[in-house]
Write a structure and sequence with these properties.
alpha/beta, Rossmann fold, 5 strands, 50% helix, disordered N terminus
């Protein structure tokens, strides 16, 4: 009896289809916060999940790339490649990356079989207030250039699968909404 219960749990929770969940939005909009909370909740429920944070991937997989449009696109393609490998192998790949250009996100959507785009939306003024890295301050002072939302464009998704207004919704509310969406996608 216990063996059958273990087998059912192992099969039902660990043998799920893969999925790439792409969190996009301005710096300090809440992508990392939400993706970490979603990751924790999914792991505790027994799902196979990996988190690809844009800053961490840039340090390890895309070191040497700058912030030109071409370099940003290449960085996102690399993250997309890893996410596609993971999701093809039954892992939920959570990606938290600014990914400022709509065309590259749309390219990934067509390439990755099971793709969910989540727009983590907060106004620039709110992101500037939350700026723990000091990037907005440095950009306004002229110390850095090509900062998305200040002196480089951010193209918001036209039709995201889900939108989280982090200036209006609590983190817990967003996480619940995201997890429900993920579970419904895995069930379909």
């Amino acid at each position: 009896m216990l063996e059958n219960a273990y087998k059912w749990f192992h099969t039902s929770m660990n043998d799920h289809p893969g999925l790439t969940v792409w969190f996009t939005g301005l710096s300090s909009a809440g992508k990392t916060t939400l993706s970490h909370a979603v990751c924790e909740q999914l792991r505790s429920a027994g799902y196979k999940v990996e988190l690809l944070d844009g800053d961490v991937v840039r340090q390890n997989l895309s070191k040497g790339l700058g912030y030109s449009k071409e370099d940003r696109d290449e960085n996102i393609r690399r993250i997309g490649f890893v996410a596609e490998l993971l999701s093809r192998n039954g892992v939920i790949a959570l990606v938290a990356a600014i990914s400022p250009y709509r065309a590259i996100r749309d390219e990934l959507r067509t390439r990755i079989a099971n793709f969910v785009e989540i727009y983590v939306n907060a106004p620039l003024a709110v992101c500037e207030q939350r700026d723990t890295k000091g990037l907005y301050r440095k950009a306004h002072a002229g110390e850095i250039s090509n900062l998305t939302g200040v002196n480089d464009p951010y193209e918001p998704p036209l039709h995201p699968d889900l939108e989280c207004r982090t200036d209006q919704e609590a983190i817990a509310e967003c996480v619940t909404k995201i997890v429900k969406h993920i579970e419904s996608r895995l069930a379909s």
